[in-house]
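Aim 2, interim progress: modelling of the zinc ion-bound target.
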Amino acid sequence: MSSNDLENLIDLMARLPGLGPRSARRAVLHLVRKRALLLTPLSDAMQQVAVTARECLNCGNIGTSDICDLCADDTRATGEICVVEDVADLWAMERAGVFKGRYHVLGGTLSALDGIGPEELSIPRLVDRVTSEAITEVILALNATVDGQTTAHYIADQLEGQVRLTSLAQGVPIGGELDYLDEGTISAALRARKSI
Ligand code: ZN
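Predicted structure of the complex, ligand included:
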């Protein structure tokens, strides 16, 4: 390995989300020191994923086959689709382990400014799936941003009258203290209050 090889690796690592040049340098140094334990297995795993990773043709999740493990899992409930913006959101929902239905990944949000319309977001495929998979409830688990909420309203308009439409509750996070929350979160939490 010449020092150019090392610099090249550091430059590439620095492009990863959450890593800057400084963390990339530390990570590369760590990898080189743990060559057998970490660097070689990591390199093998990356080569493998570079060949096998693909987008699920049905839901847009990232997996290693044309139909992802979640879509292929017969034990998951049919009838409910949880709509998310990004694969990372789907994985976050799965980590929570409470939703046992189907997913649909939009791949972003509607944005007139960036020229992103319904076609770019697999919204037509969602509308098709609602019919072809006999969906009764669509859960809009989109981010609580302006674009996320605009997208949720657009989808709700498209599916109006065909299914039950729900969205995630917004409000006080688990372990959250009122004093630290912004006014938008507090007012959303108050509007979504429930009996105890
Ligand atoms: Zn899938």
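The chain has two domains: 3-52, 73-167. Residues 34 and 192 are 50 Å apart (CA to CA).
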